[in-house]
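Lay summary. Proteins are chains of building blocks that fold into shapes, and those shapes determine what they do. In this project we predict the shape from the chain. Here is one chain we studied, written as its sequence of building blocks.
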Amino acid sequence: MPRKSFKTVPRILQQETGVLAGLAAQVERDHALVATVRAALPADLAPHCSGVAVHGQTLVVFTPSANWATRLRFHLPDVLRALARRHQLVCGQAVCRVMLTDPALANTAGSLPPAAWRRDISDASRGHIAAAADFIADPALAAALRRLATRK
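And here is the predicted shape, written in a compact code that computers can read:
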């Protein structure tokens, strides 16, 4: 009795026809686009490009936080030129979107952990804040400043 050979997953993906082959080709194109985008960015920004997508004439660059999206946005013209040069992909515009895929990235994505931004206020700062509250016309703002001045 002939022995039936099983196809491995890589072998199935390497087949030139079928839905899986199309998906595998799309994944390879996406990886190539991400590599091109990262290469066009400064070294400190490149790791924070978590993905890209093309929707019509719009390139969407995904980042893990709004901080990185803001910084990355200034480099989008360079990214568009690199994609046109390397992939002959011409997009009319590019946008950055925040896509948090791993909650652990939130603290490494440019935001500070809560303990770092809740620091003690010096006595001199408390005095300045309390003095400023005396000259504020808005009663709600003045009350908030007085609470801040008494916070330990």
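What the prediction tells us: Confidence is low (pLDDT under 50) at residues 107-113.
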